[in-house]
Amino acid sequence: EEAVNAPVEGDDDPTAWLPDELLLLIFGFLAIAMVCARVCRRWNKLCQKVKVSETSITLHRWAHFRKGTKQPIHWVGNTQGDTRGILALALGHNNKLYSGHNDGLIRVWSIEDGKCQQILRGHLSGVSALAVGPDGTVFSSSWDSTVREWSGISGDHLETLCGHAASVGCAVAGRTNLLFSGSDDTTVKVWTWGSKPATCIRTLVGHTGHVEVLALSPKQNMLYSGSGDWTIREWSVPDGTQLRTLDRIGAAVSSIVVGADGTLISGTFYERVTIWRGSDWALLHEIPQAYPWDQCAHGASLALGPDNTIIVYQEKTFSVWCIRRCVRLAALTKDLDCAVRPRAWWHSQSIPMKGWVRDEDGKLYTTSGLCGSITVW
Q1: Dihedral sign computed on CA atoms, order 48, 51, 57, 62
Q2: 276 with 329: CB under 8 angstroms?
Q3: CA torsion sign, 269 to 232 to 87 to 320?
Q4: Using CA atoms, how far apart are residues 155 and 339, in angstroms rounded to an integer?
Q5: Judging by DSSP bridges, how do beta strands 318-322 and 327-332 pair with one another?
Q6: Which of 111, 98, 101 lies closest to 342 in space, CA to CA?
Q7: What pLDDT shows up at residue 298?
Q8: CB atoms < 10 A from the CB of 219, how many?
Q9: Which residues of the chain have pLDDT under 70?
Q10: Cα distance between residue 376 and residue 219, in whole Å
């Protein structure tokens, strides 16, 4: 109210009366076009204050629901010992857990005692995804439109991979020296790494919306990309040829996993989880939504479990489903035993899409995102 009624002298910006936190919340509900148009000089100052590059003004979080509800952006400052604002988790070699934060930092945790061993600095904006190569090399994608390569042993920054024209929302590393990254510029890039400099050998073009998620087939000869254009595309890894397009998703794609037999499971930002037959992508089963679509905050995220099962996360709820029969076998609740790393008991907020990971021993590592706790189940 003060901002609206404040006298405007010359080119003075009336939003100067608003606190940063409130103004950022308001910007979170604006349409993408209005944000890209830099609605006021105050927005530019806030971008500089929180170290947001100009290319990431389109922040893909505004485009989560192309035809539905938009969610606000929350900015949480981190101190050296603060773990809030976690966007992504990844398991590394030598009992290490990596967390990517919305202030651009990457923290390295010891799985054994839950202590922070190291902080990796370099990104200018939030770390959207983490991937670990077969030799332990760590890759981080960011809203600053870059992918960075880090030593899994020393944590040293090895290289910065530049080439995307907008924020990079996902990355996945194969068993060979190939890295795949998806961006808001609607492209997927294929990189070779291991010998400096890392090189982009191929750009996969076809999507018309931001690329949100990537997944490799079990044999790693196929790559699957999910996008805000409501499609999943299948690509040949050896030559980059687009093989098939699945356009019956019905919403922006938030997660993809591929079963051992080629079965494709997709999750959307409306928390719809669908199981598709690998041979012809015929619809086999659909897992019910945990909440109505207009109450979904982050979208469904998925991971393969043991014995032909899938672990599904839908709005504060983990459940285990049999893929073939589409029957829920178990649900993860706060009544189950858990070991806490570093200081959490139960998540009071939603988990980000890339904010949980499962190891080979069956342990589940989750983060509550903005609250910043990491829990081992």
Answers
A1: negative
A2: no
A3: positive
A4: 26
A5: antiparallel
A6: 111
A7: 61
A8: 11
A9: 1-84, 290-298, 315-316, 332-355, 362, 367-373, 377
A10: 29
